Amino acid sequence: MSAADNRPEPWHAALHRLQREGRPHVLATQVTSAGSTPREPGARMVITADAVYDTLGGGTFEWQTIEAARGRLAGVDGRVEAGMRLEAFSLGGRSGQCCGGFVNVLLEVFPGSAATLAIFGAGHVGQALVRLAAPLPWRLLWHDSREGAFPEWAAETPRLECRPAPDPAAAVAALPPGAHALVLTHDHAEDRALVDALLARGDTASLGLIGSRSKWASFRRRLGEAGHDEAALARVRCPIGTAAGGTGGDKTPYAIALAAVAELLPLMGDEARPEQRGLDPAKLRAALGDPLRDDPHAPA
């Protein structure tokens, strides 16, 4: 291993990687400074729930910046919301540092992928699904119980995480809350075990199963015998894609995947954005100065 391999990841590399992976993070940028400060405006660091990349100079001020960023990442009821916030630090007051300067730091929160789609099965339909879903702002968790099932191109697909899954129950237990799930493995018994585990978990946002109506009739009866009530069973979409108009009789993998993704779009869509986004203009002018007020040539 070379010495370069041991160097910490700089903020710009971490930012690129985290955005590509669709993971929540905060970009902290020092935008103003007055007096003696550890770094100058333009210094940046990237913060996640469990890691920090680069530095704004260290000390209590940096620790407070990290705490403020992680407070934003914690969100409300576990939901991270995108947005910006300006944090002001009096280094001799709020931060208790002897340099005594004053710093404003802009925190930009990136909540990561809007939704998570768990795909069980890396066969022809699964591969077509991943290719169709890759350009969308979803985090993709791809599972298969077979060794060597994932294609080589999967390693280069943004926001995709391949998860070998020999144990269906363990694979389902590892999903994040509120994930959408599609079950389309190579084996009917494995499909049924996955649907059973997903229904038992009870917190999936949606659940689709590949197959015919006769397959679902058989599954429905056996899942009912296993203790799942009618309300739970009614949440399973089988065949997948019918809510989007189906495939028109085309049963090729691409057609099935296309109908399934079209069906998911309204289920996984973003909530409406608020009218006011970004920083409050009055607070921004107060922190950075009003360009009209400070321009001697501006009209009174």
From TrEMBL:
SUPFAM superfamilies: NAD(P)-binding Rossmann-fold domains. Residues 272-300 are annotated as: Disordered. PROSITE patterns: D_2_HYDROXYACID_DH_1 (PS00065). Residues 272-283, 291-300 have a biased composition (Basic and acidic residues). Residues 19-75 form the XdhC- CoxI domain. It comes from the Bacteria. Residues 117-264 form the XdhC Rossmann domain. Pfam families: XdhC_C, XdhC_CoxI. This is Xanthine dehydrogenase accessory protein XdhC. It comes from Halomonas pelophila.
